[in-house]
Design brief:
Length: 340
């Protein structure tokens, strides 16, 4: 595999902006990564659905990953020109103070989340305020700030994607643009193959605020089975081994009450047949991913979950290994290729 091409695709996806409910740029970027001759359409909530395979087949597989990234939403502009904010998705407020951001007002603006100097915090130096009590400095007086920025405008991390050593990369939005890359790469691997099933690649919206995009997108598609692709916890200091996968350790195949056990076991068998590393990802209840929404669509959809191991989730510097992205795509392609 040419990891340079895969890296560039993931970076293109990660540099497209798209907080929950505002994924237009991310959707356009995703469409460019799928085969150009594959039919594609956007629905009322902004989901992207790309079709391949035998359209009249009774077997219809939905492969899903979400487009949106975590961010902030502007709640007001105070009398000194500072932007008051709240979370838009499950942002980790511990990493916010002092972080560079992009504000999507009437134009793109650079900003910094205000940070109290440690000299002034006293005994509260290790305390992080609630997100709703934070402010963003865009460096202009109140008159200009109120002209350029309004409540409801969105904010994202302003961090350039970086190549690390080996096949690892760091970027904001790898949750879940790396999953979108898996879908696009899977479509590339399937191009030219004679498929005996129908396949819909769903790049969904609003996962970080409840999964409404995957719920409505799956309802519209009406699949007979589905596989969701998201990120999972990778090993790092302080994380117990049984709670995580490993960077470069291959797909994390989900096992949970809401997931289809036969589908999960089938994915394990395929990974072993392909001689790729994998990890059983065990969850005792729901998964916290779009697979929960898809499984409960209409009368129910047998659903599996594949996760890409990731460090620093919901921060400006998430980390994944491109080998895992490629192996997840290969596993999905094998799953689709054997379907009849």
């Amino acid at each position: 595999m040419d990891y340079e091409k895969l890296k560039n695709m993931v970076f293109r996806l990660c540099t497209a902006d798209g907080t929950p409910g505002g994924e237009d740029d991310a959707r356009l970027a995703a469409r460019c990564e799928f085969p150009p001759d594959a039919p594609a359409a956007a629905d009322a909530l902004g989901n992207l659905a790309v079709s391949m395979g035998a359209q009249n087949s009774p077997v219809h597989i939905l492969l899903e990953a979400h487009l949106d990234q975590i961010g902030l939403i502007v709640t007001g502009v105070d009398e000194k020109g500072f932007l008051h904010v709240d979370r838009c998705g499950g942002i980790d407020r511990r990493v916010l103070p002092g972080t560079a951001v992009t504000v999507f007002g009437k134009e793109k603006l650079c900003g910094v989340v205000c940070c109290m100097p440690p000299h002034l915090t006293g005994s509260g130096a290790d305390k992080v305020p609630e997100t709703a009590k934070m402010a963003v400095d865009i460096g202009c007086p109140v008159e200009t700030a109120r002209l350029l920025v309004h409540p409801g405008d969105r904010i994202v991390f302003r961090t350039e994607p970086k190549e690390l050593l080996g096949s690892r990369i760091s970027a904001p939005g790898l949750d879940d643009r790396s999953g979108v890359a898996v879908l696009a790469r899977c479509a590339q691997l399937l191009t030219g193959q004679k498929l005996h099933c129908r396949v819909t690649f769903l790049c969904s919206t609003r996962e970080e605020t409840g999964g409404t995009g995957s719920r409505t997108g799956a309802y519209l598609a009406g699949p007979t089975e589905a596989v969701a692709v998201d990120v999972g916890f990778a090993s790092q200091p302080g994380v117990r081994p049984e709670q995580c996968g490993k960077l470069g350790g291959g797909p994390m195949i989900g096992f949970a009450p809401i997931l289809s056990r036969p589908m999960s076991e089938n994915l394990v068998s395929l990974a072993e047949k392909l001689k790729m590393p994998y990890h059983r990802d065990i969850m005792g209840g729901d998964t916290g991913t779009d697979s929960d929404e898809i499984a409960a669509t209409k009368a129910g959809v047998p659903t599996a979950l594949i996760s890409i191991p990731e460090r620093n989730m919901h921060t400006p510097a998430e980390i994944v290994d491109l080998a895992d992205v490629e192996n997840c795509a290969r596993l999905l392609a094998a799953f689709v290729g054997e379907a009849e």
